[in-house]
Amino acid sequence: MNFKINYKDSTTDARSGEIVLSRGVVKTPVFMPVGTLATVKGLTPRELVDINAEIILGNTYHLMLRPGEELVSQFGGIANFMAWHKPVLTDSGGYQVFSLAEQRKITEEGAEFRSHIDGSRHFLSPERAVEIQSQLNSDIMMVLDECPAKEFSKTEVLKSLQLTQRWAERCFLAKKEIEKKQHNVDFSKANFVWKYLKASEQNLFPIVQGGIHLDLRKESAEGLISLDAPGYAIGGVSVGEGHELMREVVEFTTPLLPTKKPRYLMGVGHPQDLLMGIAAGIDMFDCVLPTRNGRNGGALTKNGPINLKNACHRDSFDPIDDDCDCYACQNFSKGYIRHLFIAREMLASTLTSMHNVRFLISLMEQARIEIKNKTFASFAKEFMRRYNKK
Amino acid sequence: MNFKINYKDSTTDARSGEIVLSRGVVKTPVFMPVGTLATVKGLTPRELVDINAEIILGNTYHLMLRPGEELVSQFGGIANFMAWHKPVLTDSGGYQVFSLAEQRKITEEGAEFRSHIDGSRHFLSPERAVEIQSQLNSDIMMVLDECPAKEFSKTEVLKSLQLTQRWAERCFLAKKEIEKKQHNVDFSKANFVWKYLKASEQNLFPIVQGGIHLDLRKESAEGLISLDAPGYAIGGVSVGEGHELMREVVEFTTPLLPTKKPRYLMGVGHPQDLLMGIAAGIDMFDCVLPTRNGRNGGALTKNGPINLKNACHRDSFDPIDDDCDCYACQNFSKGYIRHLFIAREMLASTLTSMHNVRFLISLMEQARIEIKNKTFASFAKEFMRRYNKK
After folding, report:
1. Looking at the structure, do residues B227 and B320 belong to the same domain, yes or no?
2. Strand (E) positions, chain B?
3. Any idea what DSSP says for residue B104?
4. Does B308 lie in the same domain as B262?
5. Measured between alpha carbons, how far is residue A277 from residues A12, A149, A229, A333 in Å?
6. Are residues B261 and B120 in the same domain?
7. In a domain? residue A192
8. What is the rounded distance in angstroms from the CA atom of residue A231 to the CA atom of residue A203?
9. Chain A residues touching residue B342 (CB < 8 angstroms)
10. ipTM of this predicted complex?
11. Strand blocks (E) in B129-196
12. Which of A51, A298, A345, B328 is the most buried (most CB within 10 A)?
């Protein structure tokens, strides 16, 4: 993996660059659509390419349960499996173990839990998390971390980040062990000629934790930097602490991370948080917001979010956002899309998800231009003024 | 409307030609995907164009209930509303009144019924059916007909087709009245520049009924031919009578219809029935089969239908049909699509519906080639041999 910073803003810490991965080049800052179960809900890979998605995220927790990493591995990994011929990042499964799984028990060894689907028992250790992601054959893997619960005391958060540090170290050791092995997949019976059989290189990012405690964020960051990883993530934000506390944590933590490596703010996708993160020097984001909200009628526009199910859109000839270049906005009216939502037609979710993802990707594209022009601060201010004005 | 027959088969009554409508040219024999609520479920108009759909069908019954024909009319008709810039055929709503609606009461005047959605009261007369379809602005409209119930005695079927005849006559009168009026739609506030604001010409097809009674089919056909319509449909087939009885009715009725006008076999979509219909001289077909089955895992292949949910497809690297040129078959394995079905992902329905519709459209394309080469009979025989072989 190679990361090159091409431009820096003058009045903020924003930067734009390129991450070169074995499946392709990703321009930063980048928004990664979430493809939980090896599909970005409602969109074809062809549609994702059309809206200029350059990298997507897959969820290890979901994929280990369904269809199982062995099956994905038989198909040459998640990218081949889902016919997405660009880079993929997989998370470690940690976050979902803490937010979705049942009867979880955390020990030094790892996390034992029951599947939220069928109650089956599973065990995720740092070594297993890396092994699974190796089988998923993502371009970027994440270490298994513990996401501290909101009600944790500061002492508990400290203990948790120390566990996350030890797990991160075990993940890096596990990765070295796995790289010694050969992964050979027999495609002799395949009718397809897949274009990219394998990511020739997988990169492992550790995750800074520490909750809302800045001194603990510092301790976590410093511990992980010693691992000399190819990139670093900030986790445990956007978990209900609110925009201002998130801003404080991100603005404090980001400068602690190595300047020359990509910085990834996990699970963040509200436009105001994306712009805040970019200004703080973040390069990568992911969030289910554009697709999850999109399936429920929530659409992002330059004038703020709207709900397409509302009766006020019934007669509207206008597109969701008249500045948007996506297929949905170039062809369909809000009145039509509202009808699709009311009639519970699949196309409602597809068009709105497509628009929402495109909206965030466009925001990243514009941010890159503004960073190059050293005008990011005024752009972000003007964007937010219009976005928040009702 | 203009219909031109370009080629005739030598050993069957199959013919291929072109229907020139104000929104485009439709090559026949043609399969029309069903877009019940102004969307072909799971597919974007762009995807429909990609699989070479040339005309789609909209359901008057569904659209009059949701979103209502007035709203569709405000958007310039169904084609503009759904951003489909090719011809549209609408049915009259009759079939759904008989199959879906509640508490229906049929009188000479028309059909009173309650909506299957909210129980609201509605009335559909021949005049209303034409008025609604005029507002939907389809290229081809259908007359309101009574679809006789399976348990009807022959006398009841006779009474029913006589009612259908009187209703057809009233539909043609209503159409003349409506054409005198001006339909002006104010698009001055529209942000879109719609490419095709209006079908400059709407064509009305009557529907031959008569159940499984050949003499009644003859009486119905003869009565309707006196209307000198631009095209004729055969209705009341594929309602549970079985393939052989359907064949008997179609092979008997089709030659009774004017040779120089398009003949439309309503609601038929099984490959064997399509080939039978083409051989009998049918030009147009529609059916929900490819999309409805597609949403439930049912896929059409040259070797017969398969269910993609079955465990036998779990590890399959193969596409649904290795001869198919659709996006689904060119990129995705059965193993992946099965995973999507098991995980209840929308993309499962999209890919399988896309393939199924393409499969039937490809079958029509191949049929046109075989008719031109005067080899349709042997083609159909060989297709069915492979399709039915297990």
Report:
1. no
2. 2-8, 15-21, 24-28, 30-33, 56-58, 88-90, 102-106, 111-114, 121-124, 140-142, 203-205, 207-208, 232-234, 263-265, 284-287, 298-299, 306-307
3. E
4. no
5. 10, 23, 21, 33
6. yes
7. no
8. 8
9. 66-67
10. 0.96
11. 140-142
12. B328
For residues B389 and B24, the answer to whether their CB atoms sit within 8 Å is: no
Domain boundary among the residues B287, B309, B340 is at: B287
Residue A127 sits in the same domain as residue A257: yes
Q: Six-digit token pair at A285?
A: 């984001």
The pLDDT tens digits of the residues spanning B64-86 come to 999 999 999 988 899 999 999 99
Above 90 in pLDDT, residue A102? Answer: no
Nearest to B333 among A192, A345, A351 (CB): A192
User: What's the average model confidence in pLDDT over B184-208?
Assistant: 70
If you measure CA to CA, which chain A residue comes closest to B62?
A343
Q: State the Cα–Cα distance between residues B205 and B230, nearest whole angstrom.
A: 7
For A353, the token pair is: 């998800």
What chain A residue is nearest to B317 in terms of C-alpha separation? A190
What is the structure's pLDDT at B191? Answer: 52
In chain A, which residues have their Cβ closer than 8 Å to the Cβ of B42?
Answer: 346-347
Q: Is the pLDDT of residue B185 over 90?
A: no
CA distance linking residue B41 with residue B61, whole number of Å:
17
Number of domains in chain A: 2
Return d(Cα A363, Cα B331) in angstroms, integer: 30
Is 80 exceeded by the pLDDT of residue B187? no
Task: Compute the average pLDDT of residues B135-161.
Answer: 95
Contact A269, A360 (CB under 8 A): yes
DSSP assigned state of B313: G
Q: Summarize the confidence of residues A325-349 as an average pLDDT.
A: 97
* A20 plus A38 within the same structural domain: yes
Whether residues A297 and A276 share a domain: the answer is no
Strands, DSSP E only, in chain A? 2-8, 15-21, 24-28, 30-33, 56-58, 88-90, 102-106, 111-114, 121-124, 140-142, 203-205, 207-208, 232-234, 263-265, 284-287, 298-299, 306-307
CA B316/CA B201 separation, integer angstroms: 49
Distance from CA of A86 to the nearest CA of B (A): 14
Domain contains A267: yes
To the nearest whole Å, the CA of A192 is away from the closest chain B CA by 7
pTM over 0.90: yes
- Which structural domain, as residue segments, surrounds residue B11? 2-182+200-287
Are both A246 and A307 inside the same structural domain? no
- Cβ of B83 within 8 Å of Cβ of A187? The answer is no
The set of catalytic residues of B is 91, 286
Domain assignment present for A144: yes
Interval A184-233: pLDDT, tens? 556 655 555 455 566 678 999 999 999 999 999 999 999 999 999 999 99
A247 and A116 in a single domain? The answer is yes
Average pLDDT over residues B46-62: 98
Interval A12-32 mean pLDDT = 97
Q: What is the CA radius of gyration of chain B?
A: 21
- Strands A121-124, A111-114: parallel, antiparallel or unpaired by DSSP? antiparallel
Is A44 in Cβ contact with B350 (below 8 Å)? yes
* CA pair distance A360, A364, nearest whole angstrom: 6
Closest among A354, A262, A70 to A78, alpha carbons compared: A70
Is residue B297 within 8 A of residue B317, CB to CB? The reply is no
Q: What is the pLDDT of residues A303-313, one digit of tens each?
A: 999 999 999 99
Q: Residue B309 pLDDT > 60, yes or no?
A: yes
